[in-house]
Amino acid sequence: MKLLGYWRSSAAYRVRIALNIKGVDVEHQSIHLVKAGGEQHQADYAALNPQELVPTLIEGDDELALSQSLAIIEYLDEVYPEPPLLPQDVKDKAIVRAMALAIACEIHPLNNLRVLQYLSGPAGLDEAAKSAWYHHWIHSGFSALETQLATYAGRYCFGDTVTLADLCLIPQVYNAKRFNVALSAYPHIERIYDNCLQLDAFIQASPEQQADAS
Ligand SMILES: N[C@@H](CCC(=O)N[C@@H](CS)C(=O)NCC(=O)O)C(=O)O
């Protein structure tokens, strides 16, 4: 099994955490998102992932190429069921998925590299306006999530067991800190971040621990 990713990619970071929690050893291949205009746009990578985004998981003898981090994680969760990343109860499972999707669909796509590049390129925004865009969508998404966490969180996003929601939250917080977003208005998010970063699976998956970190 091979994971094509990038050290600073929050979507690849989610998958790295899942692999570590499951104890699955994979070969890592770096797809540099910036160098030479972005290796994700090169033809051989685009043939594997037509959206030209990381991560891609290459799996099995037939070299199946899987895209979309949440699809990859749910695939891993089914192939390697222990420890589970989703609760058993169907309602609890839906709540965890809703929190994960709130990050992966409502926050992350708005501050993705290609969006930021478009803002400073064709849209003509200066650095201050681009930063305001980034901060706006993080605050919008995190304040909604903080409200949900007030109901459901324990040590982690959903009670005291790590779930798919934590795998999405921690990379997004890493990203927000990188862009200097103040997080003091989100005590649940800050607490969960600190708790997750005490776990080896999260520590080993963190961007700075990756071989391609620069
Ligand atoms: N929904 C996708 C998002 C993937 C994604 O946006 N990846 C980013 C890195 S976190 C990327 O490859 N960006 C390259 C670009 O924007 O050109 C997933 O969850 O896998």
UniProtKB/TrEMBL annotation:
- What is this protein called in UniProt? Maleylacetoacetate isomerase
Name of the coding gene:
maiA
* NCBIfam families listed in its UniProt record: maiA
Q: Which residues form the GST N-terminal domain?
A: 1-84
InterPro entries, alphabetized: Glutathione-S-Trfase_C-like, Glutathione-S-Trfase_C_sf, Glutathione_S-Trfase, Glutathione_S-Trfase_N, GST_Zeta, GST_Zeta_C, GST_Zeta_N, Thioredoxin-like_sf
Q: Which CDD domains match?
A: GST_C_Zeta, GST_N_Zeta
What SUPFAM superfamilies does the database record attribute to this sequence?
GST C-terminal domain-like (SSF47616), Thioredoxin-like (SSF52833)
Write down the Pfam families for this protein, in alphabetical order: GST_C_2, GST_N_3
Query: Per its UniProt record, what PROSITE patterns does this chain match?
Result: GST_CTER (PS50405), GST_NTER (PS50404)
Family assignment from sequence similarity: Belongs to the GST superfamily. Zeta family.
Keyword annotations for this protein?
Isomerase
| Gene Ontology MF: a single term | isomerase activity
**Species:** Shewanella algidipiscicola
Q: Where is the GST C-terminal domain?
A: 89-214
